[in-house]
Predict the 3D structure of the following.
Amino acid sequence: MDAIGPLLELLRIELPIIQAPMAGVSTPAMAAAVADAGALGSIGVGATDAAGARRMIAAVRERSRRSLNVNVFCHRPATPDRAIEAAWLDHLRPLFARFGAQPPAALREIYRSFTVDETMLAVLLAERPQVVSFHFGLPAAGALRALRDAGIVLLASATNLREALALQAAGIQAVIAQGYEAGGHRGAFDPEAADDRLGTLALTRLLVRALDIPVIAAGGLMDGAGIAAVLTLGAGAAQLGTAFIACPESDADAGYRRALAGSGAHHTVMTRAISGRPARCLANAFTELGAGIDVRRIPAYPIAYDAGKALHAAARAAGEFGYGAQWAGQGAPLSRPGLPAAELVGILVTEMRQALPAGPIGRG
């Protein structure tokens, strides 16, 4: 448990719980509620531009002045391949037709990587959230230095020891150990490299043993017992995402919420078909579509996501929600629908304390 206190002090929070920055699902209202409950609230700005990020940060600060984590995507900018993109649109055309729609005429790179987004960096330096976290890798050393010089705490995701050591060497202050159980996009730096698919418990323990900086465990964690387990392994905190999707503050639509409460929650699938990068999703019509696809036929991330979002919009307009990006981890069946985010944090803390030995955050 020695790692908990220093990390809480670093992040300026009271509880070893981080609400994951789920782009498109987490909201300023959710982040503020979690922060005021004593945990670390997060927003993901990888799916918006600099102006949108500024508005989201302001919306959090209207509700709370506690610590805030702002997450950005550091993926390699996509290399367009018009032949692959056209063939992918032709492959999806019958599905669009089923819902009375046409696919886009062409696909766009809908998300700009933070690695080339100077305006986003400028917003973060001006707004100075307490924490900035990176997914899919890191920006250039100059951006890291500027953020650190601004007094911002830097976190980043790793899916294996090699990535974690690179993060530590770059000056990241705590590593998020993203197990294969985690919902949403794998944080792997190179999506084409072999993936050892390390689970949360094994990865957390490996990183705790190897690193000189705190480790935050993420993936499949849904209740206080899971949080206690990773703290016992040496993590300084636990990051939970899927646990918060069913909260009323979430931006998940009604179809996503129904799916999370249904049988698909017991059969999450890692797929590239929706966005172009591996991501864990509730079993649905889109994951079924991707099951038999040669990944070489799928356009690069996030170009493929342009098609995925268009198909979801067409299907949803016809009352079909099964083509959504219903990201969720393997712990999805443990979801507790309807609990406000702050109330959920309180329950997690009670369960965590019941599972931990006596101590400053245990039963004592």
Remarks:
- The chain has a mean pLDDT of 96.
- Residues 358 and 364 are 5 Å apart (CA to CA).
- The longest helix spans residues 82-98.
- The first strand starts at residue 17 and ends at 19.
